[in-house]
Model the fold of this input.
Amino acid sequence: MTSGLSRKMLNRAWFGKPVYPLLFGLSLWVSLAAYLTLDSLQQSVDDYIDSNQLAMVGGDLIMTTRQQWPEDIQQKVAELPQTDVVYDYQFNAMLYANEQSLLARIKAVTPNYPLYGEATVASNQNLWQAVQPGTVAVEAQVLSGLDLTVGDSVQLGEASFVIADELTAEPDRPLTAFGFGARVLMHADDLPQTQLMGQRSRIGYRIEMALGPSQLENWKNELTILIGSQEINIETAAESDTALANVSANFLVFLKLLVVAVVVLSGVGLFSVMKAFIRGQQNSNAIRRALGEQMRPIKQSYYRLFILMALLSAVVAYGLSVLFLMFSQNYFSQFLPADIDIQIVWQSVIKITVIAVAMTLLVSYQGLRLLALVKPVAVLQQQKIPRNRQTRAWGWSLTVVLAVFLLMVIELDNLWRAVQITGGLIAVLLVFWLLSVLLLKALKWLVNHHWVKHWLSRLAIQNVFRKGNHSVLFFTTLSLAVMVMVMVALLNHSIDRQLISTYPEDAPNMFLLDVQSEQHEKLNDMIKAPVTYYPVVRARIKTVNGVSADVLKEQLGTYDDISRVFNLSYAEDLLDTEYLKSSRDNKQLFTDWDDDVVVPMSILASIADYLQVNIGDEITFNIQGINLTGRISSIRARYERGPNPFFYFIFPPEVLAKAPQIQFATTRVDDQRVVGLQTAIAQTFPGITTLDGAAIARQIKSFVGQLSQLVTLFTGLAVVAGFMVLLTSLLSTSQDRLQDSAYFRLLGMRTRHLYAINVIELSVLGLLAGLVGTLLAMTVSYFMVTEWFNLQFSLPFYTLFLGALMLWFVLAGIALLYGRMVIGRQVMQRIRQMV
Amino acid sequence: MTNQQSAVLVAEHLSKSFQIDEIGISVIKDVSLQVKAGEFVVIMGKSGSGKSTLLSLLAGLDYPDSGRIMLNQDDLTVMDEEQLALKRQRDMGFVFQSFHLIPTLTVAENVAFPLQIAGKPDSERVEELLQAVDLNHRRDSMPHQLSGGEKQRTALARALVSKPSIVFADEPTGNLDQKNANQVMDLLINLQQSFGSALVVVTHDQAVADRADRVITIVDGHTV
Ligand SMILES: Nc1ncnc2c1ncn2[C@@H]1O[C@H](COP(=O)(O)OP(=O)(O)OP(=O)(O)O)[C@@H](O)[C@H]1O
Ligand SMILES: [Mg+2]
Done:
């Protein structure tokens, strides 16, 4: 049992100097609060998905396709009570009214929609009471975008509709960020009048069915048999992934991994604080031992204190998390549903409490090994108790790795991925660690070999290598965190500059979908700028060199998905934006193969790499049931990526001209003309959908912007954790630094020189780490920008400069503050003790 | 031997050496001695002669290289560190040159500490000791608020509070002026006599040695 006095003496020593509880707390608060916030967020999202899955998916069983439903399927579905089936058609189209036009996402449904959840309208009426045949409900955007009010008419395709109400919520579209175009909800029966259903590019056909659990499997099986090899997808609600589930599974888990790294770092911070404290208590501990106190109660008294601190920290973290969630809803608006209720979940609170306590126990265990070095005989010896020797602890390190691994398993819910990610994390850390060690070794060499001339700088840099400093660790953390943050900033900057802020000069800024050949002439007249038309034939890959795509799917990389629908095209010549990489014959796009069954074909280099094909290889496509085999006669590449369209597979015109096809067109017009042209085209050709490139770019920008904001925020926490490591290592080397300062002072060193030593030491260490992180980030993002995105790499000099300046301010600030605390207060006291 | 019966502490053939840079330095060389119940023994010798080292062996704060130390019939040299701690808790008291009070406990709490760790809190006994060393008025002071004499008086109270059979003191007056030194020494001897504890004091002070029952002198690691 710990006696009351043991507890008292320890509490007084701990809480007597605010620096211990404060640094201990700060180390934990940040990481725990971040963890709690994300965990709660994830839990809330998962709960939302659980309770809304049916509504989000739309039915118990869903079929989707890109073509009109076959008769037999429709007949089969008709066996269900009519109230249990919804036919749903979705596509983009232009709305036109008041001499204005707007891109809309049309959703036409049969009147039993929705089967689950509720679609609401502003008038609070029942949806189908409000929306009678011939009328539509529209999202608020439509009203504001076209200057309309409820009761006005709007033109859609060849038909005109009265806006009956404002649509306020759809159960199956909780996220608005993922779709382009404002919503228009209408009766499926009204669809034919619009004459938009013919050869259109992207109509999503969907059948949603409500089925009892007992029927579900039966129906699925029977429909699957009916579907056979047709291009129809069928899945149950449980099998269906929603956009929201993807957010939760990918982005939130990614942020979580960042936070796990922060948690690990905070463990290092804890360790330093404990070490400093236990070293400070060495004398008391020696007395306690000399007076005959057993080791167990001494250790218990420490454990008790630290666990108390861990619990307190969990409470503080809870408070911080509540505050954060109160003010941060906007951060998540782009990828969380508006009606989601984000709250701190008790499971998450338990989780962080367990993490806090477990981590504290682990760290304490190692820290308290220092107690074994306390010999009671020390009380009889005048000299100081010897420095702590570094204790090697493989078993303990292994336990820590296991603990992290366990956390990963819990977080990822997948053993193999946890192994990979833990392994990857350790590998990255090792690389950075090695790099840090090497660089610091080099620095040491420079100082020892008199490369650094100024005496003050030499003294300061030698301090970097002080025993017990966590210089390497701080360096590793800071450079890693800086690298991630700079990389995010650089990528953002390059993408922003070239795709969004300054939309490429000569790239098309208007896209026209569903153009027909006979409309070309009129369109050219209206646009008064060069228009490029692209025919598109949809097809799937059947075989590559005789090997079935199903077989290849398992073997090929992740660059693309061989089983998806590809867009084929035909042309006489190369596009302006492309060049021939290699050709069978004399820089020709196509050359005849002297073979009646195969036709020449040109392929884009990137997909050729993915499919592992070269000139002379054959690919067989399935175009709506008809097979077409092309033999590669040339390989093309693009000059640069951007908003210019491109095609993986191009055939000679005579091969595909008669295949079922759609056309789209691109053009470049003055920015001021875009909106007017859109309206004019919508009025003249209601079937054509026009997209405004700049507007799309803006929308992508706001989404990407929010993602990078969040990544930066959580990486910022890693920086904070890195600074905690720095602060705590300053604390744990305080006694030695104080001693040095006392000597220097005794020898007459001036105060500002004492300060300068600290400032130089931290600046050199921190700025060097920052530089390394920045250089690495530049290298990696240079390759990403130029190789992946095919964009020009550009540096945000101003941001980088600002970042460096901020880093230096923080470093110098810490150094000065620390100097004040150590030099200002205690140095004279120490000198008096010495003489 | 008959007087062996009344001996609290018997040390036989103790030797101890320290390893410094691979050179062994012999500090204690074949020392044997006895301390009887209630006896007051002084150990003297030049600086560096090994007095503190000998005391650390006798008090079970360190292990000898060879030899045996019997305290109340228990052999200290075969005990592990935890058993030694228990032994110190029950049978020994300590006074050090640099006081070694626990800085975060008050005077009264410092005195109560040995009883607490032994699981036998006894506030009356603490009162009694505080009275005896005349520190009742400072009972709630922290050690850093005390004068050297007051600190050492607190240490005396702490050393004797658990009625140890033997008290060890290493230059208890070394950090005090003459007046305080005399006062502390008087107190120590008084208390020791009234509680019947044996007392082993390492000192340079001839005046202290003059009051001892017996003086052991160490020269170069040997008793003479
Ligand atoms: N832990 C140790 N490691 C190495 N040498 C030691 C150690 N403790 C003591 N010594 C050496 O043993 C010798 C005796 O030391 P000890 O402290 O016992 O002397 P002392 O008689 O108490 O001296 P003083 O009167 O100055 O206190 C000294 O030379 C000392 O340097
Ligand atoms: Mg000594």
Chain A has 24 helices and 21 strands. The mean pLDDT of chain A is 84. Residues 531-667 of chain A form one domain. The two ends of chain A are 42 Å apart (CA to CA).
